[in-house]
């Protein structure tokens, strides 16, 4: 089996490779093709993978290329994990929004729209090349904003492209453990869009255990989302939101906290990652050690402002070790390759499951996966509150895709203006103009 990783010079590729090394079953991945537009990054990550594979018998063979078609040829699976505009682009996404008084974040609010406008045209180009060169391949999309990007690729790849994120399974696992339930045996009544969903039930042994979790202050304070949102609000809500909803429910406080720090997350990562790639280039023999140190710093500072706002304390050691990102991808790939039925929360077309959304809207929802792909399963319907927010953000995503694909400035303006975290059309116009001036990929949207 051959796996192609687009964005193969990316930092988290080593997590995926680590997971592959642990897979000893038949039909496992035996060859990994790394594609990246940046040769230096490819070389650094290849050095990390080489050191990870040391002493492991039959480790998947790794090749590197900067030629997309060459990377895709013969692929059984394609992971797409690219960052258009790099971390430099991310810092502009964040900074422009913050300077105009709205949330600047990688995937949520104005920052996510700018990132989407940049990424969608590239993702569509990739989807077209996959359809031409590797039409049988299954495509697993990690590229953020993951829901929007997956929806943009579907016209070219159909349901062979599946979007993934580790946050819903992470939430499910943490909630199950807080209840003393084995995470693998529970059913998660989770629904929403990527980075905008809620756990509305957690069934174990045929019983919904979520009400018991919501009742117990002790259990709630034992895990990340319980501490972020607080028992009082969780009980009012009757559900546990994805951690990214902290930016919506505590919009003022998180905005102020993010504005108060000199460095945005993107800026921090830009400096951290640049140092990692530079040092690895100088000392390739220390690649793995440098990677591990960098990873630990990156994980422990994740969503640090939200945790400060909520007074939630340090990140749980178990969360950092649990292996979300790569495990979701590996489970999905295994279920397809071995025709082993699995239940995973994925970004797929709604196909009638959530009544408030049309069939083709990409939603994040539990699916049954086997060799035929991923099919959404029945979950509870959305409440009015959930549906209101989801439908608003779906309209934003679709306007962003329309703007990215057609170049329509009015579609781009609508996307910013309709976002629940952008509070005025004037601000939306300024955001669009400012992004168009500062991001080379978006100059076509200038007034
Ligand atoms: C979570 C999200 C991802 C995001 C990642 C890293 O896993 O689900 O979508 O890419 O965090 O965030 P960071 O701020 O560290 O780049
Ligand atoms: Mn995610």
Explain what you see.
Helices cover 52% and strands 15% of the residues. The chain is an alpha/beta fold. The strands form three sheets. Strands 3-2-1-4-5-6 form a six-stranded parallel sheet, with helices on both faces. Strands 7, 8, 9 and 10 form a four-stranded antiparallel sheet that branches. A three-stranded antiparallel sheet has the order 11-12-13. α6 links the parallel β5 and β6. It binds 6-O-phosphono-alpha-D-glucopyranose and manganese (II) ion. Manganese (II) ion (MN) binds next to loops. Keywords: Cobalt, Glycosidase, Hydrolase, Iron, Manganese, Metal-binding, NAD, Nickel.
What do we call the CATH homologous superfamily of the domain at 2-163?
A: NAD(P)-binding Rossmann-like Domain
The percent of residues in helical segments reads 40-55%
The overall pLDDT, averaged over residues, is 96
- Computed structural class: alpha/beta
Biggest sheet: strand arrangement:
3-2-1-4-5-6
Unreliable residue stretches: none
| CATH secondary-structure class of the domain at 2-163 | Alpha Beta
The major pleated sheet works out as:
6 strands, parallel
Distance between the termini: 49 Å
Query: What is the count of helical runs?
Result: 21
Bound molecules: 6-O-phosphono-alpha-D-glucopyranose, manganese (II) ion
What portion of residues belong to β-strands? 5-15%
CATH level 3 topology of the domain at 2-163: Rossmann fold
Radius of gyration: 21 Å
Give me the CATH architecture of the domain at 2-163, please.
Answer: 3-Layer(aba) Sandwich
> Which geometry do the CA atoms define?
globular
Please tally the β strands and state the result: 13
